[in-house]
Amino acid sequence: MNIVVCVKQVPDTATERKLRSDDKTLDREAADGVVNELDEYAVEEALKLKEAHGGEVTVLTMGPGKATETIRKVLAMGADKAVHLSDDALHGSDALSTSYAMAQALKKIGFDLVVLGSESTDARTGVLAAMLAERLGVPQLTLANKVEVNGSAIAVQRLTDYGYDKVEASLPAVVSVVEKINEPRYPSFKGIMAAKKKPVETLGVADAEISADQVGLANAWSEVVDFAVAPPRAAGTVVKDEGDGGAKIAEFLASKKFV
Amino acid sequence: MLNDEHIELRKSVEEFAREVVAPVIGDYYERCEFPYEIVRKMGAMGLFGLPVPEEYGGMGGDYFALCLTLEELARVDSSVAITLEAAVSLGAMPLLRYGTAEQKARWLPKLTSGEMLGAFGLTEPGGGTDVPGGMRTTAVLDGGEWVINGSKAFITNSGTDITGFVAVAAITGREGGRPEISTIIVPSGTPGFTVSKKYSKVGWSASDTRELSFTDCRVPEENLLGERGRGYAQFLRTLDEGRVAIAALSVGLAQGCVDESLRYARERTAFGRAIGGFQAMQFKIADMEARAHTARLAYYHAAERMLAGLPFKKEAAIAKLVASNAAMDNARDATQVFGGYGFMNEFPVGRFYRDAKILEVGEGTSEVQRMLIARELGMDA
Ligand SMILES: Cc1cc2nc3c(=O)[nH]c(=O)nc-3n(C[C@H](O)[C@H](O)[C@H](O)COP(=O)(O)OP(=O)(O)OC[C@H]3O[C@@H](n4cnc5c(N)ncnc54)[C@H](O)[C@@H]3O)c2cc1C
């Protein structure tokens, strides 16, 4: 099975994250880049599927040159090879144009199954899996907390508010997974050393047949008009129980329109 | 001396320690419980096979990779770090270095995967520094079997559910009045080999330390590890390496004290400002950072010489001496930065304080390190 797992480099959620004042895009230089945590579950699932069914796992990353660190980590976890979609023309792409660029790259790579995390911890749109499936004309099975492949049939448990839906489709398909699905492995030293020898192909927009006038900040469908730093958290209200604590809490909740 | 792979390994272990060890280790520690689940995950990550060649299921890395791993683990917790240190440095390495092909094939794959732990029994209730002079445990050949009698004290990893064997140093004869020391592998569960219940310890509470006794304990002659009569020389090499590893672990604890103090000094306020704004606190933390840094350089240097095949006895002794000192000093200072909370078990610095002391004792006391350094300087006893 030819599995492609899409992985994004994001600023470490443990560090302070900023937008750039000039073009209002994320300041990727300001913070340490790490593998989007939710993508690690996608990588683990892809590796498990490969271990069970054979085949190959290819990492696809769209991002600046610095994203090679992320690629190396995923290769160290056990992926076989990587494609790095990297071009200045892609800077500032929104979800729609990103999905277009990634779909073009996926068409070029070829796949039986594309696996993604449920969202990225920086942009948090959570729409890429659906958009990719639509652009590629294949079934989408999103928010999976269990994936089963049987020949060319794929079945997932799709996490919902009330439990889960059972969704079935046939390959090729796009799957996004939630964090309950597995426990991502940590790269071993052997994996880290092996990763050095694994092939990484870099694609520019022309290589992936991406029209430069459909990607990048200038061609984005959505625009960040303004932004502000989140205000520091205000001091909370302390309710001292002097026999009427319950009533006071109810009053507070009512004043905030929670009850 | 760090290459790209070392840097990535360190990052990977740092994440593991933060995500897997830190959230749960306090509870294990409080309950004095061995963290089997963490050990299993460390095994899955290949940590127990770091310096072992791939043909034995190892990672094909070097001893320095192990040291970096110990440092990162000990930044978060020392019980977990010493479990790994003893398992690899005292359990697997002597087998790798001195074992026969059969012994390696039998034990190493299970040791490197972390499914099984090996222990090394040198210290006896009557003395740990005075070896081999003070050693009492004996092994006598009888009908193709070693018959072992005696006892061992403070043996790490010797009584867990996954302990496979203890390599026991014993007197196997006399040569011109001097005891002849050999090392013999005693599998767990061998009749006559008794593992006592865990000690109640000041620190390293989530690690396994036991007293062992041997009463007419019989194992096959081929369980001899290395050459007969070479046991003393073998463990000297093992201990020299082990000192570099303990130095790395000590640096981790010292750095963990800096990490925790920095965080706390930013958050805690007194007199209307963060305590990190007071010069007294800043100087304390600056001293802590300086100690951790210099101790790290000392162990890097010792490891570098070891890997280059150069003599490293003095450098290993210096690294262990200064790093264990740094760990003790930093633990004392970090608990001071935390004020009363430093005395509470719920904060890691309290654990660091309890864990630091043993670093000045295990694998050669600080006095022993000074004796070694003096001897290397040509000063006779
Ligand atoms: C938690 C823990 C885990 C351990 N794990 C292991 C293990 O896995 N395997 C193992 O074999 N051992 C292990 N040990 C034992 C450890 O290595 C010894 O405790 C240590 O070597 C000191 O020996 P001792 O306790 O007998 O002290 P002693 O040798 O009795 O020393 C007492 C004091 O006298 C000093 N002293 C002794 N001789 C001299 C001298 N000639 N000159 C100056 N000062 C001297 C010492 O420095 C020390 O301060 C462990 C110990 C602990 C506490």
UniProtKB/TrEMBL annotation, chain A:
Coiled coil: none annotated. The keyword Plastid does not apply. GO terms for cellular component: cytosol. Keywords: Electron transport, Transport. The keyword Electron transport applies. Residues 23-212 form the Electron transfer flavoprotein alpha/beta-subunit N-terminal domain. Its cofactor is FAD. GO terms for molecular function: electron transfer activity. Gene3D superfamilies: HUPs. It holds the Pfam family ETF. It comes from the Bacteria. The electron transfer flavoprotein serves as a specific electron acceptor for other dehydrogenases. It transfers the electrons to the main respiratory chain via ETF-ubiquinone oxidoreductase (ETF dehydrogenase). Belongs to the ETF beta-subunit/FixA family. Heterodimer of an alpha and a beta subunit. This is Electron transfer flavoprotein subunit beta. The gene is fixA.
TrEMBL record, chain B:
GO terms for molecular function: acyl-CoA dehydrogenase activity; flavin adenine dinucleotide binding. Residues 119-217 form the Acyl-CoA oxidase/dehydrogenase middle domain. Residues 3-115 form the Acyl-CoA dehydrogenase/oxidase N-terminal domain. Transmembrane segments: none annotated. InterPro entries: Acyl-CoA_DH_CS, Acyl-CoA_Oxase/DH_mid-dom, Acyl-CoA_Oxase/DH_mid-dom_sf, AcylCo_DH-like_C, AcylCo_DH/oxidase_C, AcylCoA_DH/ox_N, AcylCoA_DH/ox_N_sf, AcylCoA_DH/oxidase_NM_dom_sf. Keywords: FAD, Flavoprotein, Oxidoreductase. It holds the Pfam family Acyl-CoA_dh_M. Residues 229-377 form the Acyl-CoA dehydrogenase/oxidase C-terminal domain. Its cofactor is FAD. PANTHER family: ACYL-COA DEHYDROGENASE (PTHR43884), ISOVALERYL-COA DEHYDROGENASE, MITOCHONDRIAL-RELATED (PTHR43884:SF12). Belongs to the acyl-CoA dehydrogenase family. This is Acyl-CoA dehydrogenase. It comes from Sphaerimonospora thailandensis.
